[in-house]
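User: Study the fold:
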Amino acid sequence: MIRLHVFPDPWGLNPSPFCLKVETYCQLADVPFRTVRTPPVRAPRGKLPFLEDAGERIPDSGEIIAHLKRWHGDPLDRDLDAQQHARGHLIRRTCEESLYFALVYCRWIDPEGWAAIRPVFFGSVPAPLRDIVAWTARRGVRRALHGQGYGRHGAEGVLALGAADLVALATLLAERPFAVGERPSSYDASLYGVLANILDVPVTTALTAEARRHAALGAYTARMRGVLEG
């Protein structure tokens, strides 16, 4: 069976949008898999998720889904037209190249978000090392966000960027039940991976408050849960 290496799951929902993305894709596409809790340092590129399939180790959520489509069929996207793929591409890029970084900032850098996720992510670390490990991890995230660019905006600027993404996504989701049509596609794996990590986890941040202003976003994650649990 395919082994999907992911972060630990403290909430019944993977805290990594990219891990949740691949888990969601496999469920939607009926690809049998088993999750394995793995430290990122053991991943091929030092990041999770990665996939083990027939002795091959595939990193990166996008490469994983491309591999699964190539070797296990493409039941979700094979009937999509060019316009649907274009819409899905823009949704995926908005989620993964913009909104994701606002989520990371609100969890790791904003004091309120950090106070909420610190015990969840580092509570199992032995007490003598806990503060050092948490501080080191947070410093690494801060540096990564600064290099990416979002970390240079400050809290208000980051929240404004995230809020704009949420408005755009809510507007699109008001038009149809799923990302690009009447049924889920691979693009919903990306969209749900981020939105569920904003709305459906027991950590409330400023970004959560912004998302709750849009009924279409909560309705969407509820529909996706219904599909995944059905």
